[in-house]
Specification:
The chain folds into 3 domains: about 250 residues, 2-Layer Sandwich (Beta-Lactamase), CATH 3.30.450.20; about 40 residues, no CATH class; about 150 residues, Heat Shock Protein 90, CATH 3.30.565.10. Helix content is about 45%, strand content about 20%. The strands form 4 sheets. The protein has a 6-stranded antiparallel sheet with strand order 7-6-11-10-9-8. A hairpin with a 4-residue loop joins strand 1 and strand 2. Helix 2 packs antiparallel against helix 3, helix 8 runs antiparallel to helix 9 and helix 10 packs parallel to helix 11. The relative contact order is 0.06. It is a multi-pass membrane protein. InterPro entries: dCache_1, HATPase_C_sf, HATPase_dom, His_kinase_dom, HisK_dim/P_dom, HisK_dim/P_sf, Sensor-like_sf, Sig_transdc_His_kin-like_C. It is found in: Cell inner membrane. Keywords: ATP-binding, Cell inner membrane, Cell membrane, Coiled coil, Kinase, Membrane, Nucleotide-binding, Phosphoprotein, Transferase, Transmembrane, Transmembrane helix, Two-component regulatory system.
Length: about 600
């Protein structure tokens, strides 16, 4: 019977052991996956934003070029050699200023009439690009964005196009090409694979050369015919990725396993399967998607360590349990032995008492008047108890500690020391805040919403504050106590404010007095934001051209001259104006005038 009970207990312990290990593995895997997914999402946001920023920056270039009168004249008179020669020189200068790869103008029949490379052996002049989708889209009246390999140079790049209109008719197309290396070079240092796919699922940007010009899935015949007709990837085979398996959800790839070839220490090459978690976001309306492939190896490693730790803890607990059980058995045997000894002594005592009683009765019969009796009693009590609870707030430390790690990686030790000092202060606070409980909670496009200007100003100052401290620039802010609202986009408005504050810092580098004044006032219908610096001011000849594209007073290499032009367009889109003037007390004054809106 005891043997059967021991066997049943062993089975139950084994099942409990396996259940605890399974639950620990599941919890550990879920936590590790959440960490990997969070890192992948941060990387996805970073790379997606950088690519979107590049596309938005250069999308405006063909639009600006299409508005030039000389382009229209050359398209209306394609046989005028002088006009075409002048336009070739203009496109060459434009191409150099914009740091583009190629810039050219295509007539409505698809023939290139002028190009920045007109004087080179690979000139585009006279070539017909009517088969390219970017030309077809622009000729239809829209703006074009396209990626392809150059049919002449075989160099990959982004093609930005925009129609040239004359009296309501499209008479040609302006095209600006940007080299793909602008993006891939900035992604080359990351160990996490990053790929960008087009609408057909072809990988055309990546930091892994073995994945370039691969497809997420086998191409259909129609898709391959469209690509070949546009000569988008020239003679690339466009084979599918070497997938061992993949999981799709709602039309998006969620996880994959790639067969990868690695070199062994002895020089041989072996094929291994590597699992990745995939995070995806769409870049633009053209159907481009950015995919970040986060390796799942850290998840498996964390699960192994968790199982090792939990298994060791369970083994120790089992050993302690067996030791306690064995000790209990020994104690029980000892108590049984003591009980037997006490029983023997009790019997001996009883026998002795009987004999004593008999002898006493004999003595009583001999001595009737020698009898006496006595008795004894005692009582005691002890009780005591104490309960105490202690809770500590922890939420704030995480943010400062994470920030300190980033600052240390960037060797910004002073700011990291400040963060760590704040952590110490929070730790001191935690030691005295007993009895309290604190909980913690948790995420542009062109969306228009109600924007509170004061909050946008605060966010912009937070972004520029490290620069202010570095350059020792004093910033004074004056704003009304009540909130001021408008209809717009908060991120875009903060972009304008950061640009104006950054420009003010630039002009104050050599100034004796380094001070910026930021003011916000409202009169009920309009709101005005002023940014004034104590720098040398703006030269009269530069004041008229300040908001022109590519006009800059900074040294070569410090900007394209598009910041104020873009800011002017953002403010104009909100129904406002952006002006630059001389301040009476010296320096430059930029004023943003915007219509107010009722609070939401």
């Amino acid at each position: 019977m005891k043997r059967r009970h021991a066997y049943a207990l062993s089975v139950l312990l084994a099942l409990a052991f396996a259940g605890v290990l399974w639950q620990a593995a599941a919890i550990s895997r879920a936590a590790a996956l959440a960490t990997v997914r969070e890192d992948a999402q941060r990387a996805l946001e970073r790379y997606g934003t950088s690519l979107q920023g590049l596309l938005e920056t250069y999308a405006v270039l063909p639009r600006l070029l299409a508005q030039e009168e000389r382009v229209t004249r050359a398209l209306l008179a394609p046989d005028d050699v002088a006009l075409r020669a002048a336009l070739n020189q203009r496109l060459s200068a434009f191409n150099t200023t914009a740091q583009a790869t190629d810039t050219y103008v295509i007539a409505a029949d698809g023939l290139t009439i002028a190009a920045s490379n007109a004087d080179t052996p690979v000139s585009f002049v006279g070539m017909n690009f009517g088969f390219r989708p970017y030309f077809q889209n622009a000729l239809a009246g829209g703006s074009g964005l396209y990626f392809a390999l150059g049919t002449t140079s075989n160099r990959p790049g982004f093609y930005f196009s925009y129609p040239v209109r004359h009296r309501g008719q499209v008479i040609g197309v302006c095209v600006v090409k940007i080299d793909r290396d602008r993006v891939e070079n900035s992604w080359s240092q990351t160990a996490m694979p990053v790929i960008v796919t087009d609408a057909e699922g072809v990988v055309f940007i990546t930091n892994r050369a073995d994945l370039r010009y691969r497809t997420l899935q086998p191409l259909s015949r129609a898709a391959r015919e469209r690509i070949e007709a546009a000569r988008q990837y020239v003679d690339q085979p466009l084979e599918p990725l070497p997938l061992a398996d993949g999981r799709w959800l709602d039309g998006a790839l969620r996880s994959i396993s790639l067969r990868e070839t690695r070199a062994e220490a002895d020089g041989r090459r072996s094929t291994v399967t590597t699992g990745y978690l995939v995070e995806t976001s769409q870049v633009n309306e053209a159907g481009w998607h950015v995919h970040v492939l986060a390796p799942l190896a850290p998840v498996d490693e964390r699960v192994r360590y968790t199982l090792l730790g939990v298994g060791s803890a369970l083994a120790v607990a089992l050993s302690l349990g067996l030791f306690w059980r064995q000790r209990r058995h020994r104690l029980r045997d000892r108590l049984h032995y003591q009980a037997r000894v006490e029983e023997t002594l009790r019997r001996a005592r009883d026998e002795l008492e009987v004999r004593v009683a008999e002898r006493t009765r004999e003595l009583q019969r001999a001595q009737n008047d020698l009898i006496q009796a006595s008795k004894l009693a005692a009582l005691g009590q002890l009780s005591a108890g104490l309960v105490h609870e202690l809770n500590q707030p922890l939420a704030a430390i995480r943010g400062y500690a994470d920030n300190a790690v980033v600052l240390l990686e960037r060797e910004r030790y002073a700011e990291a020391r400040t963060n760590l000092a704040t952590v110490v202060e929070l730790t001191d606070r935690m030691s005295v805040l007993t009895g309290q409980l604190r909980g913690f909670a948790r995420k542009t496009g062109d969306e228009v919403e109600a924007v509170e200007l004061g909050r946008s100003i605060t966010n912009a100052i937070a972004l520029i504050e490290p620069r202010l401290r570095e350059d020792q620039v004093a910033l004074t802010v004056t704003r009304p106590p009540q909130p001021v609202w408008l209809r717009g986009n908060a991120i875009r408005l903060e972009q304008v404010l950061v640009n104006l504050l950054k420009n003010a810092c630039d002009v104050l580098r050599d100034a004796t007095e380094r001070r910026i004044e930021l003011t916000l006032d409202a009169d009920g219908a309009r709101a005005r934001i002023g940014v004034r610096d104590t720098g040398p001011g703006i030269a009269p000849d530069a004041l008229e051209r300040l908001f022109d594209p590519f006009f800059t007073t900074k040294p070569v290499g410090e900007g394209l001259g598009l910041g104020l032009s873009i800011s002017y367009g953002i403010v104009d889109a909100f129904g406002g104006t952006l002006r630059a003037t001389h301040h009476p007390d010296g320096g430059a004054l930029f004023t943003i005038d915007l219509p107010q809106a009722p609070p939401p």
